[in-house]
Automatic annotation (TrEMBL), chain A:
<dbReference type="InterPro" id="IPR042527">
    <property type="entry name" value="Atg5_UblA_dom_sf"/>
</dbReference>
<protein>
    <recommendedName>
        <fullName>Autophagy protein 5</fullName>
    </recommendedName>
</protein>
<dbReference type="GO" id="GO:0044233">
    <property type="term" value="C:mitochondria-associated endoplasmic reticulum membrane contact site"/>
</dbReference>
<dbReference type="GO" id="GO:0006995">
    <property type="term" value="P:cellular response to nitrogen starvation"/>
</dbReference>
<dbReference type="InterPro" id="IPR042526">
    <property type="entry name" value="Atg5_HR"/>
</dbReference>
<dbReference type="Pfam" id="PF20637">
    <property type="entry name" value="ATG5_HBR"/>
</dbReference>
<dbReference type="GO" id="GO:0034045">
    <property type="term" value="C:phagophore assembly site membrane"/>
</dbReference>
<dbReference type="GO" id="GO:0061908">
    <property type="term" value="C:phagophore"/>
</dbReference>
<keyword id="KW-0007">Acetylation</keyword>
TrEMBL record, chain B:
<feature type="compositionally biased region" description="Polar residues">
    <location>
        <begin position="130"/>
        <end position="150"/>
    </location>
</feature>
<dbReference type="GO" id="GO:0000045">
    <property type="term" value="P:autophagosome assembly"/>
</dbReference>
<feature type="region of interest" description="Disordered">
    <location>
        <begin position="130"/>
        <end position="175"/>
    </location>
</feature>
<dbReference type="InterPro" id="IPR007135">
    <property type="entry name" value="Atg3/Atg10"/>
</dbReference>
<dbReference type="GO" id="GO:0005829">
    <property type="term" value="C:cytosol"/>
</dbReference>
<feature type="compositionally biased region" description="Acidic residues">
    <location>
        <begin position="156"/>
        <end position="174"/>
    </location>
</feature>
<dbReference type="Pfam" id="PF03987">
    <property type="entry name" value="Autophagy_act_C"/>
</dbReference>
<keyword id="KW-0072">Autophagy</keyword>
<keyword id="KW-0808">Transferase</keyword>
Amino acid sequence: MADDKDVLRDVWFGRIPTSFTLNQDEVTEREAEPYYLLLPRVSYLTLVTDKVKKHFLKVMRAEDVEEMWFEYEGTPLKWHYPIGVLFDLHASNTVLPWSITVHFKNFPDSDLLHCPSSSVVEAHFMSSIKEADALKHKSQVVNDMQKKDHKQLWMGLQNDKFDQFWAMNRKLMEYPTEEGGFRYIPFRIYQTMSDRPFIQRLFRPVSPEGNVHTLGDLMKEMDPAALPNDGEPKRYQVVIHGIEPLLETPLQWLSEHLSHPDNFLHICVIPTPTD
Amino acid sequence: MEPQGGSSATLTAIQHHGRRRGRKCCSTALRRSQQSEQVSCELSAGVFLSQYPRILHSPVRHKMTSTTSHMSSCVLDEQNFYRCCCLLLQQSEQLNDGWSWEAVQDSEEGYLRKTTLRSVVINSSTVWDLEGSSSESEPSDQQAQESEQSVPVALDEPDTMEDDTDDDDDEDDGVCAVSKGNSKVLQYEYHIMYSCSYSTPVLYFRASTLQGRSLSLEEVWSSVHPNFRLRLQNSPLNTISLQEHPLLGQPFFMLHPCRTEEFMRPVLLAAQEQHRPVNYVLSWLSVVGPVVGLDVTLRYSQLHPAASISSTESD
């Protein structure tokens, strides 16, 4: 369907205007100007910020530069979460551009994973894809792919090549017609108000009786507090890629069209803004 | 000999390793295989994997998968995971092995936890490239150069070579001197959790010095015994990486679970054929634990290894 293909493109090409400002405690030789960048929602911070690093290195001495890390309003940003998820979770109802602070010292290794090279990002990305396929197809599709096919998925993401990526990714979105959907839906639900980093459990797209499960069914099962009680005003928003899909949307459709390139549906539950 | 226990293949593999390395750990493995069939299954599982890589990719595998997946005992579901943990916990208490259960706020969900102190000897050997199979050789070369010259090597029973006159640290307890360098006592914390994606247990761990400095991935890699390192290095997803702990959100090292079902299958099938109950979590732990310095004492096998499904028998 033409409409559905458009959704795939809209998801892929989503961007967040961001300003990067150097942490004022960093030692510089002269004043550092902020750096502005349009960040891809579906990529990862450490993959797309080489230019940011270069920009700030111009005003710093090499000995003052350690591993770069990012923070928003005091919260270290986890590079291994897709950029769009970080934004929706921490800054979605704030004024654009998203203001991120850049650090080159005091890496918080009790909060953040180290990311010394892009191969670490690749390993993490491929690991997510494999885990998603374990849920969808008992790993059969991803294991039948050759190493060059895996590489194509990664290169498609790294170089922002939609067609190259989807030529391979479509295989991961197939399912036997008689099943009506994937075996289980790969998803993670994030909320800042919780101690645990995310909720991830087994959930089928179709019930044993043949009923199609919706986003609302998923939330009711996994995080019922996120849904409003009858008559009460909505306290939380259920956000995917910066939008609130209708709770009646079939989960299988969401998984096929609104997943990130890592094949997971990343769902953010955030407090409804009170203007 | 029947391949089920793989005992002759096991001994051959051990002898081969023994000849190549001459390490004490191989003689330990020999002792183990003679004493406990359950533990020898662990070694045969490893041998099975290396001998039959092609089976994993042939069409026959799909057939195998569909048959074995119907054998529910080859797949660990979440309820059985908790039962196995319960059992392990009871046995651990009897043996004073230090495992505890950490529950997630009023739910049955949680994980097994254990902390240990390990004496690790540091010697100045070359740092090896931990991203050997990655396509980008440049960053990993840089990494290798930037890593410390001295690298911790953990030995369960360290070889006694020359006297170590450099060692002024008084932290260690009874670790025999090795050629050069210092010995350090490190604190390891192990968590066993359930992965619903892979239907297997997963091992997470972190390590720090007694002063509280966390170990880097390079240091952890260096403390993996060379015999295990080679196998892990060849399959990058079957490896140790830094991950976010799914319940605590903090960085932990994790042993990737995606191959667990493959090496557990022969163990479970063999046990089924012999009508022997198996604690999935305990058997799995005896395979993966030693890779990252977690010993699983043989005394577990001397207790009644009650099945996860049948009634638990507490002494």
